[in-house]
Amino acid sequence: MSEHPSRARWSALAVVCAGMLMVILDGSITTVALPAIQDDLRIGPAGLAWVVDAYVIAFGGLLLLAGRLGDLLGRRRIYLAGIAAFTAASVLCGLATGPATLISARFLQGVGGAMASAVGLGMVVGLFPDPADRAKAFGVVGFTGSAGASLGQVLGGVLTEGLGWHWIFFINLPIGAAALLAGLRLLPRDAGGGAGGGVDVPGAALVTGGLMLGVYSIVEGGPHGWTSAGTLGPAAAALALLAAFVLRQARAATPLLPLRVLARRTTALANLVQVLLLGALFGFQVLAALYLQNVQHYGALDTGLAMLPAALAIGAVSLLVAARAIGRFGERRTLLLGLALLTVGLALLVRLPAGRFDYVADLLPTMLLGAGFGLAATALTALGMADARPEDAGLLSGVLNTTQQVGAALGVAVLTALAGGSGDAVDGFHLAFGVGAALLLAAFLLATALPARTAPVPAAAESAVPVPN
């Protein structure tokens, strides 16, 4: 590249974050538009659920495979292919005139999103070998996530009410095209480790099928019951496939997921903490929106604006504070502080009123304490990728993204079921928020077993995060 190597790295990070922004934006923006989609396409409740579930199943099921393929074939290649697929599928979603087309296109979106997301963190690790710069880069990644979530909540309401639900998908076209063109120019080429030893095709089929069935059983468990045949059957099949996958990896000459990766203490604990953290936080996001709309009768746009302070607080802390905190205190202490703030925030919601509601007193403190996610997510990402070797970075990125999706799907399914399973609607919300706080407390206790610092971070971590050019 013609740029200074340091500037080239931050430019490449901007490209990676643009793709992440598009994928994250799509998740929050679609949720806001679901009622309009249902009315326009005359989709029943079960079909409407599949508009979300088709994406989640493809995305969650393919992350591990996509991450490993990035290690073998080159992360740049997999990332750009994912962005192209996601963008094309978004256009198909926007052009859909019936449920079948929309649901099929959403599945393809999930495939593209998995390919781009699975290798994203691995590319960041490769771009920033220095721990201080890597901490800053992960802070930028965290800011991108919160920006996508907050922008999606507000933009979804604006586009749906102003132009129609089709435009929530068409908005991905300029973002995807820009990310693809910039990526071709700015992302460094990497050959990958090569597939000379052969790709573990049986292992890939087992883990992809197992993860897809597992995610399916989770998303179906809430509406259909956790003990129903439609839930227990896929869950049992998922466990059988995943068990067969583990046996296959222990014996395969070129395993898709070398078991030594999961045997690393820091990697295993970081992913367990992430399941609990994302389960609580994604559940909170959905429950808070449902409480505002169903109990306090907020509109879609008002709900997005009410949730905005949390996203802004998370973004500011991710970008300006997280790297400095990690540099001064280490990843574990930063993670513990973030989890403590989040636990208090969710615990406060067990007192939400059924009647007269004061946003500033009743909900805003929790939104501001959500800044803890900016600390926790950045530190957890650093811990989850701390043991990444060059040949495994894409795989660890895929593992971290997979546990994120499993945790999010499980949290939303369980907590929304708890919120709706009580005779009194507000009592159900109180129970669900209490369970969410308990999940965060369990994550806090698990996190105390993590190493204090995964690598020495020089004092340069105290400097401001460079702005990508």
From TrEMBL:
SUPFAM superfamilies: MFS general substrate transporter. The keyword Transmembrane helix applies. It is found in: Cell membrane. GO terms for cellular component: plasma membrane. InterPro entries: MFS, MFS_dom, MFS_trans_sf. Its main location: membrane. Keywords: Antibiotic resistance, Cell membrane, Membrane, Transmembrane, Transmembrane helix, Transport. It is a multi-pass membrane protein. The keyword Lipid metabolism does not apply. Pfam families: MFS_1. Residues 12-455 form the Major facilitator superfamily (MFS) profile domain. GO terms for biological process: response to antibiotic. GO terms for molecular function: transmembrane transporter activity. The chain crosses the membrane at residues 12-37, 43-66, 78-101, 107-128, 140-159, 165-187, 199-219, 225-247, 268-292, 304-323, 335-354, 366-386, 406-423, 429-450. Gene3D superfamilies: MFS general substrate transporter like domains, Multidrug resistance protein D. This is DSBA oxidoreductase.
